[in-house]
Amino acid sequence: MQRDQPFSIAPESYGNRNLASNMDRRKHRRVPAQVQGFLLGNSHEIEAVTLDLSVGGARFDCDIEVYPGKVIRVRLVIPGAEEPVSIEDARVQWVGEDTFGVSFQNVRPAELDELEQLIDEYEETEGSGHA
Asked: Which CATH superfamily is domain 32-126 in?
């Protein structure tokens, strides 16, 4: 069985080779969707915005103190959804100056469906696809 070769197109805004190599390891489609969210990492929820999103994780712009390995709870306000998508276990993978990335762990099927639908709709609206 032949294995597909990984590739990535790292935008210049990342400016960090470690982040680009992390992109090579991604398993899921990722779109630059900005979605309102709420993060619970300590004693209270803090509002956040995704800078990009996939069914496997997200990059956030948020003022919460986190570190790689920390597990936080994420609630994403998906337009048109009755309730926020709630991901109980989001593990921080990396921390930048004003942003950080999480991987979603143990996501329920209903939440996966909501995320997939949002990503599909974003790609259709933006006309973005894979080269």
From this structure: predicted glycosyltransferase like domains (2.40.10.220)
